[in-house]
Structures are given as structure tokens and as C-alpha cells.
Amino acid sequence: MLVRVLGSAAGGGSPQWNCGCPVCTAVRAGDGLARTQSSIAVSADRHRWFLLNASPDVRTQIEAFPGLHPRDGDRTTPVEAILLTDAELDHTLGLLLLREARALTVYATPAAHKTLSDGSGLLRTLERYCPVEWRAVDPGAEMSLAEGLSCRAFDVPTTKRARFGSGPDHGRVVGYRLTDKAGGTLVYLPAVQELTPPVRAEIEGCGCLLIDGTCWHDDELIRLGLAGKTSRDMGHLPIDGPDGSLAQLPSLAVRRTIFVHMNNTNPILLGGTPERRAVEDSGMEVAMDGLEVEV
Q: What distance in Å separates the CA atoms of residue 174 and residue 141, rounded to the nearest whole number?
């Protein structure tokens, strides 16, 4: 299984257009890598690709990766389908940028589908441009994506307030565990508020884990005077702290752990910071756009 990190930053990218925090300032000065918004592409054969989330930067991400380019002479695309972890705009706005497709296949839970249809209205807009086949994702059920590649979504509990009315909590946020015919396992978890026992069971022993690295400190945005919410308030487990992901993940025997979905304020985005060194000293990694991993 080949994994390509299309975008490694959280919503807004890095640097974020309206942010002058120390990290964004450093990236603009050339002291760190710019990053687009979170998404990955996965393939078992390097010909048929599945996108996990469709960020607002999806066009740039596709152009940066020849594996996703159409064949010469026509508009046949290697993108087989898009799997959504939730209905957040950061993960779904890119669907509208794919509207020129002859058809789109999108996997989503009933909760995410309801939000996209009755809440943000994104689904109704997209369907005015191209046929959309929506495939229901049932957390806990195994799904075959292509020959040699299957996946299972799992529920990721969250107390984050829903932006578009109310709906079922089950399946509002999910992670995906993907498996290939050789037994390689990948877990994609760009948003997780707490490593509950069921979530830990999905992660444990996987070959590669791409996990939520949104904030270093739980009160990171508060410290910087940029917002009044903690990382957990926004549905994201912080990396630092006695119960942060850096402290919890080593016990799960994951062969390779890579942080994705980093907020523009997170100091691990800059090489040489104490926070970046702490991650690397633990044996974990910080994703960059274009990172490719064989699982």
C-alpha cells in the first residue's frame, strides 16, 4: 500500500492567510515549509487511488502529484473515490473543485451525509454539476475498496459543537483503518479528541498511523491570544501533556507514527524547535506535503 500525504496542515493551511503568529511569520520568512490543508491519497496498485478527505487545496495537491493526473488524451482520472472522515468544510470543500468529473463516488457516514445535505448544503450544490454516488459508511463494518484494498471506519467520539444544527453523534467523526492483501495496515485519524479504549484498539499494532497533530498545547490558541477555545474544545487531542498523544501513543506498538493536520500555530511545524525535537526523539514524525509512505 502506498500513501501520499497531499496536505499536512489543519484548516487554513500554514501559513494561514490572516495569521501573524510566530510560526506563520517564520514560514513566510522561509524558516519553515508551507503546507496545504489535510488530505491523503492511498493506493494498493499505484493505479487506482482513493482520497481521504477533499481539502480546499485539492486542485493544487493533485497537480503536485503525477500519480493523480489524468491519462493523456482524455479525462479519465485515477481517483476512484473520496472517503470522508467528517463533514467539516476543511475536509469537504474540495469536492466542489472536483465538480468537472464525469461522476464522483463519495463514502460518508449517515451523520456526515446529513450535514452535507441539510446543513452546509454542499451536497445539493455538487449534485447540480455532476452525478454523485454516495456510499454509506457504517462504522465497524469492513468495506472492499478495490482488489487488494479494504477498509473499516471506526467511530471517533467528539463533544465539539456541530456547526449545522443537530444530528446523530455516532459517526459524526470517524477514522479509517485500511488493509492491503499483504497485511499492511494504515490508520488515518486526522481528528481525535480522546484516545478511548475502542479508538486505541483500532490503532494498536498498525503498520502506520497518521494522527491528529493539531495543537502542541491544549491552550495553544488561548496563550497566543488568537481564540478562546482549547484544542479539546475544537475536537483535537493536544500532543503535549501527561495525557497528550505524545505520552499515550508509545504504548500502542505502532511501527510508524506520523503527525498530520497540524494547526498553523503548532511549533512542531518548524525544524529545530524543542517541540519538534521532542517528537523526533520519541521516534515519531511530522508530515510534510508530498511525503510518501509504503506500508
A: 12
Tell me the pLDDT of the chain (295 aa) as tens digits: 999 999 999 999 999 999 999 999 999 999 999 999 999 999 999 999 999 999 999 999 999 999 999 987 889 999 999 999 999 999 999 999 999 999 999 999 999 999 999 999 999 999 999 999 999 999 999 999 999 999 999 999 999 988 886 666 789 999 999 999 999 999 999 999 999 999 999 999 999 999 999 999 999 999 999 999 999 999 999 999 999 999 999 999 999 999 999 999 999 999 999 999 999 999 999 999 999 999 9
Cα–Cα distance between 227 and 179 in angstroms, integer?
A: 39
Count of structural domains within the chain: 1
Note down the domain range covering 101.
2-294
Is the full-model pTM beyond 0.90?
yes
The CATH number for 30's domain is 3.60.15.10
Sequence-ordered list of residues with C-beta below 8 angstroms from that of 5, at least 6 positions apart, any chain: 40, 210, 258, 260, 287, 288, 289, 290, 291, 292, 293
Distance CA 150, CA 103 (A): 22
Torsion over CA: 287, 252, 237, 221 (sign): negative
* Nearest-angstrom CA–CA distance, 270 and 24: 10
Radius of gyration in angstroms for the set of CA atoms belonging to the chain, rounded to a whole number: 18
